[in-house]
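Milestone M4 deliverable, item 7.
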Amino acid sequence: MNAPVEVTRPGAGTRLVTFYHEVIAEMKKVTWPDRPQLQQATIQIIIFVLVLGAVIGLVDVALQALLVRLPSMLLGS
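Output delivered:
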């Protein structure tokens, strides 16, 4: 009968150092946006959030008006 094969894992310190080196290698591959790209993206996000907030506000007002008036219309009061 074959004996089970034991796989040894590196220690926690070795794994941590390997992880750190891999993170550094990946971060060197990242292309960071320049200042004008960052400003443009920030402005677009702010405009999107404001528009989305306005749409949610309008839907809230419409549903609130509908749900307040609907019972009185159905009950005839």
